Amino acid sequence: MAVSSNTLxxxxxxxxxxxxxxxxxxxxxxxxxxxxxxxxxxxxxxxGLVGLAISFRNLPDVRVLRSYTxxxxxxxxxxxxxxxSSVHGEVNREVVPLNKISPELKRAVMxxxxxxFYLHHGINPSSVGRALRANWEKGSVxxxxxxxxxxxxxxxxxxxxxxxxxxxxxxxxAIRLEQILPKDQILELYLNQVYxxxxxxxVETAAESYFGKHASDLNLAEGAxxxxxxxxPEDYSPFLNYKLAKQRQALVLARMRDLNWITPEEEAAAxxxxxxxxxxxxxxxxxxxYVTDAVKQELIQRFGRATVEKGGxxxxxxxxxxxxxxxxxxxxxxxxxxxxxxxxxxxxxLAAVDPRTHFxxxxxxxxxxxxxxxxxxxxxxxxxxxxxxPFVYYAAFASGKYTPSSTVYDTPVRYRDGxxxxxxxxxxxxxxxxxxxxxxxxQVSRNVPAIKMGRAVGLDKVIEVCRTLGIKSPMExxxxxxxxxxxxxxxxxxxAYATFASMGWQSDTTLIVQVTDSSGNVLLDNTPKPKLVLxxxxxxxxxxxxxxxxxxxxxxxxxIGRPAAGKTGTTSSEKDVWFVGYVPQLxxxxxxxxxxxxxxxxxxxxxxxxxxxxxxxxxxxxxGVPVEYFPSASQFKRPS
Length: 640
Hints:
Elements: H1 5-10, H2 18-30, H3 33-57, E1 74-77, E2 83-87, E3 92-93, H4 103-113, H5 125-138, H6 148-157, H7 164-180, H8 183-193, E4 200-201, H9 203-211, H10 220-229, H11 242-258, H12 264-272, H13 289-303, H14 305-310, E5 314-317, H15 321-340, E6 346-353, E7 360-364, H16 389-398, E8 407-410, E9 434-437, H17 438-443, H18 447-457, H19 459-468, H20 490-501, E10 505-506, E11 512-516, E12 522-525, E13 531-532, H21 536-552, E14 565-570, E15 576-583, E16 586-594, H22 606-621
Parallel strand pairs: 1-5, 3-4
Antiparallel strand pairs: 1-2, 5-11, 6-7, 6-16, 8-9, 10-13, 11-12, 14-15, 15-16
């Protein structure tokens, strides 16, 4: 029988029903505590709701994904499109459109990760409910229940720490994302963003690594195995545990069969298929490390390191793979030959430039990159000795006051240079030849006339000529400058001589033909834009004199059976020996020296050691190349 509240009020004493007695007792014992507890609980819930609302308001704006581009690996190719090296930071990724991804892989991924992807609106309530129940029973986050969309926003915006608040944030952001992006775009972003193990991010890089093929070419068996990796890529990697990877593949295939996305026969065939694995590609060595190191340096100076490592650049170099390999093998053999001749501890460098384009055709920075990564062709600044003299005599010819037949005097002279005895230049053989023509002086490499000519035309003018020729190394107008007192790199001097070879026409010397982004948009175009930077008559005149140096001067060992111009270089202390020479199609510098800058050996000269190496290289480099002749100075107007 129901008891009314009025009846209770009318009975001051007597028996109280047990249930009401208990409530009364609790009320007496707790007093206002129950009310306080209720208010506290309400405050916590309300505060939590406010906190969630504030958190949701402060979540990242998913609208940025409308124009989002994942970080992508850059690739460096030779001039014919052969891959030389890939450049990336922590993330190795190549982005591909959805239609370039195998349908088998897409179905496999959705089967194991989110089979309702095309049906839900960012979250899948049944999956979330199942995950919440599992987490409640275990007392911790043990199951995700994430959709592909939720995983995408987690990978891009959120931490991977397991927490209820993060899962809620994922859900909210996933719903928002599905309101602004179509399903296909979300799936494309996910497949290009997800981590597949061994530093492979995105499906294309993973397919190339695991199976040595493009993502578009993956079959059902391969796609199922890759889909099985997503949950724990390193644990399930076929490179590390093929048996476990096959178990995961079977799980994916079974799920696809349960969904009626494949037939039992297709499942069985895929499980039995023998898979040919590729190899990890993230940290492969460069095919041409001297080249690609220099290319990366040039790119970083222009675009910045972050853009190079994450911007998905496609870089076409000026280098032909086979030509560069020939040059590297050649220098290796010549280095061994020098060791046999007793020049222990020596190094060699080679730099080759095409005078018609100023494209670098080969750079060899040493005898063996695996033993020393230092690129002496581009980074070492060594004294060029007499190989510097052509810059002095070009300045003289360009002044209009001198010709190759003008008389200079190889006679003793002393200059005040601040030292007690002053500076008295001398020739390599310690003799003097008296009056002689500029042609003869350069042909036999006399030092004193070069010093006198440098003073006559002005050392600042000589430096100006060097700057015009693209030489950037530091120089001072010291009296010994004409004898190569300032250090230059082999590439600098080879490029400068290339401008002589082209009769004064010059483009920027570069290793890079073109740079595009992964979509083909041109970021850098180094199509040659030649400018006439030298006086053509003076350039032709210096070329004529340097031809004499090869035919009957210190460079006789460089004769190659066709017109060639060049100059030996030997420093007074015999620490550096050079030969720099050119034909109309190619300019090449050869340097020999020691990294510790010690003397090579007594009597070592550029004519004896560097010139024969130059000759042997040019014979290989010009094999099959037609003979061309240099224009005569008489074809050009002499400056007045």
